[in-house]
Design goal:
three-stranded antiparallel β-sheet; single chain; 167 residues; mainly alpha
Length: 167
Amino acid sequence: LWPKDTVQSLKSWFREIDADRSVVSSIFGKLVNHFPRMEEFTKDRVSALASALEEMGVGMEPDVRWGGAVPTEDTNIVLFPITPDERGAKPSAPYKVATLALHLAAAVSASDGEVSEIEKGHLERQLERWLHLGQSERTRLRAHLKWLLLSPPTLTALKKRVSALNE
């Protein structure tokens, strides 16, 4: 349903920023520049965009469908490759708990104004120890961690996430 030039422009951009199929960061405004008619960033529109990106084999964090906030034009985002079997997946309960743990760890790590390489390494190693998560959820969680390190959560945001949990 997208104009052919938009699709070609996106594919070219994804190849450029993801030549080695790794997790890469950008800003949301750079992504939506490919969609001149996307002037308003509502949850429904961003959700539709994330679904369309998945069809092209690209995941995005934060993802409103996985509990992320609606990004603004200057929001840091992380793009990462996904496989066809990951398209349309929903977050599991263990994934939600893992993201909350990472939010808390990222907030604590950034509390002194910076996240050291030692702290980053510890967070990444901890993520790999969560064997209760499938490979696709760990891939998304790595992207989520990279996003958290670019945009450390505040304790207020963390409190909001915790208050949304049931007992």
